[in-house]
Design goal:
The complex is a heterodimer of chains A (139) and B (335). Chain A has 139 residues and is mainly alpha-helical. Chain A folds into two domains: 3-38, no CATH class; 48-136, 434 Repressor (Amino-terminal Domain). Chain A is 53% helix and 9% strand. Chain A is built from eight helices and two strands. Chain A has helices at residues 40-65, 71-78, 83-89, 94-100, 103-106, 111-121, 125-129, 132-136; strands spanning 20-25, 31-36. The longest helix of chain A has 26 residues, at 40-65. Chain B folds into two domains: 77-177, Cathepsin B, Chain A, CATH 3.90.70; 184-333, Four Helix Bundle (Hemerythrin (Met), subunit A) (Up-down Bundle). Chain B is built from twelve helices and eight strands. Chain B has a six-stranded antiparallel beta sheet with strand order 3-8-4-5-6-7, with helices on both faces. In chain B, strands 1-2 form a two-stranded antiparallel ribbon. The longest helix of chain B is centred in the last third of the chain and has 30 residues, at 270-299. The N and C termini of chain B lie far apart (46 Å). The chains are: A mainly alpha (139), B alpha+beta (335).
Chain lengths: 139, 335
């Protein structure tokens, strides 16, 4: 790639915080360093990965509001985690986390366990248990 | 408690951290040199390991290896420490900073809030350098960022003690002793030899240029095997692995070509420069592949023809890399 071919696509997900370094060639074929603010295929691939995440979060949110799942499921999806990953933060087991995604078991959780989950997601226990917060939370 | 530290942006986190750390200790290696001597370039397709149900394709060697190989070849003594207690880990970091030593460490990208939100997945093998503490905040030199940034105590603890695979466990490292004399020539050839050997001569079809060819074969039938929607998701992941994570595949090819370019002038070897030019073209091919794959992902519909075309492109890349690295092996064999 020659240095004037380094992509500078305005439409990117870098929020102006990041301009990646590329190695590109000068006219003699020697390498120089050039910054790039974004490249379309990369942005597309990244957006696609996030769309999958957002879809899952939205599904989880609907389930919680319908009473088919506990808010725990929503927060797991929102933090792009899996039950086993949450389990290692909250020092419990993956299957327990899966159980607690069910409202029946979630309602019976002790304050201590709720605090562990809240710690995992870096929120307060109130934010974890309050379903009303999810109602207006469109992404 | 700040150290007089010069930050230089780099394309890949691990080689960048090594380059920046060593510059502080008086050894001036540019990033491509670290990447090349540490034999950072590789390819592996591991369909039996899946992350979120998507098979893993890596365009480089696994994390930690570049640093290990590089310090072996140059003769740097490094100390790596790992902790079970976050408070102790942060105390150890503070003590090192008090001594005026910048420290490299492994972190999870998810908790580094200075990065754009779109990059913050759970990726636990990102390398950064902490070189000071001001007003309770740690000064960070993240090699992929243009400038140095800062991070709060809580975020840094979270990032150093993230869970999941691979667990950083507060790992931190710093050079204990840097050599005054070393044989650069020997290190360069050793690095080149290992990379070219691993790219062409490992008798496993999943790694090196064979792995790329194998992936192209599999890619051809993705839409039939797993359906259009999933095939596009997998393809998107392939581009992300190639282009995003640590500038990925084509990026790595360009770093390596830059290394060959620098090595050719250090060793007065024109053949290396010639190969660097060829690798540049191969990297361009890989970028074209990503470009068209991105198109397929964007349109969200695929017919088997496009996947077959993409597979052809990837196969051509594999063929080309095989030739380049075979030639490179022949050049480096006798050295």
């Amino acid at each position: 790639m020659e240095k004037d071919q380094v992509p500078q696509d305005q439409e990117n997900l870098n929020e102006g915080k990041l301009a990646k370094l590329y190695y590109a060639t000068d006219d003699k074929g020697h390498y120089v360093k050039v910054n790039s603010i974004g490249w379309e295929p990369e942005t597309v691939a990244m957006q696609q990965a996030w769309d999958v995440v957002f879809d899952e979060v939205e599904d989880a949110r609907k389930k919680v509001l319908e009473g088919k799942a506990s808010p725990l499921l929503y927060h797991i999806k929102k933090n792009i985690m899996t039950p086993s990953l949450v389990a290692s933060y909250a020092s419990t087991f993956g299957f327990m986390v899966k159980l607690h995604c069910h409202p029946y078991f979630f309602k019976r959780l002790s304050r201590k366990m709720l605090e562990k989950y809240a710690y995992t997601f870096r929120i307060s226990v109130e934010e974890l248990t309050d379903i009303d917060l999810l109602k207006k939370n469109d992404r | 408690m700040t150290v007089n530290f010069t930050h230089k942006q780099s394309a890949h986190c691990e080689s960048g951290v090594v380059s920046n750390l060593l510059r502080f200790h008086g050894l001036d290696f540019d990033e491509p040199m670290v990447f090349g001597i540490g034999s950072g370039l590789f390819f592996s397709y591991l369909p039996f390991i899946r992350v979120n149900g998507i098979p893993v394709a890596a365009y480089r060697i696994w994390p930690g290896q570049i640093f290990k190989r590089f310090s072996e070849r140059i003769g740097i003594k490094i100390e790596t420490r790992k902790f079970s207690n976050p408070a102790k880990a942060m105390l150890a970091l503070d003590q090192m900073l008090d001594k005026g030593q910048p420290v490299g460490m492994l972190t999870s990208v998810f908790y580094l809030n200075y990065l754009p939100a779109a990059y913050r997945f759970h990726f636990n093998a990102h390398n950064i350098i902490v070189f000071g503490k001001e007003n309770g905040k740690y000064l960070v030199s993240d090699p992929v960022m243009e400038y140095t940034t800062e991070i709060s105590y809580e975020d840094l603890v979270r990032a150093r003690f993230a869970k999941g695979m691979p667990e950083p466990s507060g790992r931190m490292y710093y050079p204990l002793q840097v050599p005054t004399d070393y044989s650069l020539e020997k290190a360069l050839w050793k690095g080149i030899k290992q990379t070219s050997d691993h790219m062409t001569r490992i008798p496993i079809p999943l790694v090196g240029s064979k792995g790329m060819k194998y992936l192209s074969k599999r890619l051809r039938y993705w839409p039939e095997r797993i359906g259009d929607k999933k095939a596009i998701q997998w393809l998107g992941n392939l581009i992300r692995m190639q282009e995003e994570i640590g500038t990925g595949g084509a990026g790595f090819r360009f770093i390596y070509a830059a290394f060959l370019d620098q090595a050719s002038s250090k060793l007065q070897n024109d053949e290396l420069f010639n190969l660097s030019k060829q690798l540049t073209q191969s990297g361009d091919q890989l970028r074209d592949f990503a470009y068209y794959a991105g198109r397929v992902c964007k349109n969200r519909k695929s017919d088997t023809k496009t996947f077959a075309e993409l597979a052809d492109m990837l196969e051509a890349c594999a063929q080309r890399e095989n030739e380049i690295f075979k030639e490179l092996y022949d050049v480096s064999k006798s050295k």
